[in-house]
Write a structure and sequence with these properties.
By secondary structure, the protein is an alpha+beta fold. It has six helices and 18 strands. The strands form five sheets. Strands 9-16-17-18-15-10 form a six-stranded mixed sheet, with no helix packed on it. It has a three-stranded antiparallel sheet with strand order 1-2-3. It is globular and about 70 Å long.
Length: 285
Amino acid sequence: RIHPLREEESIEELLEQATEFRATEKGRVVFTGIVDDFELRLGKEGAIAELTGRGMAARLMDMQTPAAEYVSAQLEDILNAYVRPCGITKIEADEMPPVRNFVVQTGATCYQALAGFCRHSAEIFPRFLADGTLVLRKGGEKVQVEYTSLPPGSSIRLGSEILTAQYVRNRYGVAARQVLINTRNGSYQAADYAGFQALGGTRVQYAGRTGDKIRATFRTAKQRLDDTKRDEKLLYVTYPGSFLAEPLDQTVVSIGALGIRGTFTVQEAQSGCDETGATCTLILR
């Protein structure tokens, strides 16, 4: 957030004051974040100013916390302790059940505290919208691209405009069975990936936990198994245009040549521009 450049002020003096950055394209906000550093360069192409930063989640990731233990943690407890003090005030959240015996360890980040609570409460992953709003809801929006004729709120069928597409099926690191052992009493819980086992997958992973408290960074056996499956099937597609989707958005893809049809979740969206024009690469799972 910086004020307009005054006539007597240099660009260096202006950038020294920059703490937040908001990018717009065609009047639409496409990114809001914090400024980590800036660089001024002078060469044959002239003077260039380059800013580097991260999304609003960085405010939570940069802040560490002292230890805390909740008999029954409520969403408002977590927001008041770990989110609002970091300057995050625009929040959209679903109702979430409390988490009993929830523990935040010394040195954990505010993001770990929030993400741990949300996942144990309702299997929700925190995300930030382009305007900096924190969203605590399952799933994402249905992707709609400006150059389509679909009515607002419709899911977009991406396929005919694809520039490049790549499908990756990765079995390395995927667990067929995840076992979590309580090192205090010897009890355990297990989760099986039946589909992978049917293909001959045999990888078994073990992890230990101490006691019955739910630590912010703790994962159940099923959650650990789901984590190993996240990058198992990935689809990389590049389209003309930029900022077509946000992480956790849903998009319908149809690529007959690869035999790919279905609804995918956006894991990552990379927008760029070169001599061929603006493009957006979506990493889908």
